[in-house]
Amino acid sequence: MTNSRHYLGLVGAIALGAILRFWHLDLKPLWMDEVITAIFSLGKNYHDLPLDVLFPLERVQEIFTFHPGVSCSQIATNVDTQSTHPPLFFCAMYRWLSWMTPLGTEWVTKLRSLPALLGVAIIPAIYCLNRIAFSQSSGIIAALVMATSPFAVYLSQEARHYTAPMLLITLSLLGLIQIQRDIFERSRLRFWVWLSWTVVNILGFYVHYFFVLALISEIATLIFIAYRYQLHIAIIKKIWLFLLLSLTTIGISFLPWLFVIFNHAQRTETNWLPTPSYISPLYQTLINWVLMLINFPVEKQPLPVAIISVLIMVSFSIWAGIKVFQGLDFLLSNNKNNISTITLLTFTIGVVSEFFIIIYISQKDISVVPRYHFVYYPSFCALLAAGINYTRKSQKSILVFLTISIISCIFVIFNFAFQKPFLPDKVAQNMNLDPTIPTMLVTGYGSYQDVALGLSFALALEPLRNADKSDHFAFINQNSPVIPFWQKLAQFSVKDVSQLNLWIVAPGLRRRDYQPQVKLSNEQIICNIDPTQHYRIGIPYQLYRCIVGGSGSATSAALSTSSLTNRRQKAEVKSLTMY
Asked: Domain ranges in the chain?
């Protein structure tokens, strides 16, 4: 009966985790990085997109159709030349989507379904990790913590390659704990355990470059443990031999992609990361730890809501921290579990230290991006669960913790927490301020990331426009030496409209760089800037109001009337348009 209840609890945790990850999987709009995933995972590249041409907005969904007959090597070539990631995840996504064709109108759900499924797979993996490292009960608690983690649910609902490496890191840690157990309990090393650990690390290298941080920390942890506990010299020699064989195998397996890594390291795609101050990475890391535990609505919320949410989050984090430290203190003093605790603590501290080294040496503050902390989240979750399990009044603490976690997950699922970067849904609402007037969305691009950003806005805007055939979107190369941006824009021809709302998204442009007037269709359409409709969400976007064949004075008058109307509209929807 005890075993039955135990495994029933595990099944319940997996089921709960699956519900939270697949619930409203298509509710949130695709953002820039997810659009990048879609392009490569559908077997396409940026050369397949309608660049520098005017394209009907109602046909934006046609861009995201499955391209059959594409090999993994072709996808790897696309990723090599147009992205900065290893290819394995995109190859797996392409195969996954091929089983679901035709994708139909539910293609967003299908695109996000594989990361969600991998997120569910992490739950039994973390159970096995804590069961071997600590106990059966710690395994169940770890499964429940992972199942209801707002951070894990957030990553699982992203069409990105975060749950895949997180699963592989969990399995790699499982191998590390098993190696540690073999050394200290049986004074032996088993070949199949090391082989499994090696294979997992090879796969991890081809899924995400950050996986190397986990491998380095695991190696350092194993060496630290071996010398700290003064193992017999014969065992230490065997450890070094097995490590050498494993690392040599991993290195050889990665040789085909080695030159690509050097190329990716010199790319400019990560230049958006801010330069760190002396202390900002420290408090940003603490904030990310809080977000791993609890995430209530703070982003773009009314001030009273944000204040209440912050107070709850800080109070809960302090309470949870005290409980976890009590449990870890007990585990460190317990001869049965102290080595496993030190192993996971050393690994976690090692990865966090690597983050700080990268931040201060490269001068790129990766601590500001919560999703990057997936590298050490499995060990963080394992220690969190073990600490709660061995604290005083553990059952009550577990109940409180899981309740807060589930509430946080609901906020994440409904886009009140961990909101999509660049807020494509809010941008689309702003651009749809005049539903009856045809709209044209133009995105200037200097990189392929800008193209993906513009597509995310077009995807969010299209369902709001009710398939208006007069709506269009376009991408214009901002760095073209042949035709400058504004000159290319003036060449676009829009037919059968008397009025037009022209939205220009121009990454890198300052507000004063927007021209006061734009002429389209060989000067048949005159567009004047609307100064009341300028926004910045990391990148700026600006509204121009256009009239066909209008004189400058007529256009200005129309603009004046329209601006008055929109000031009233803006006041009514201030909570939506304040960025």
From this structure: 2-30+103-266+280-413, 424-577
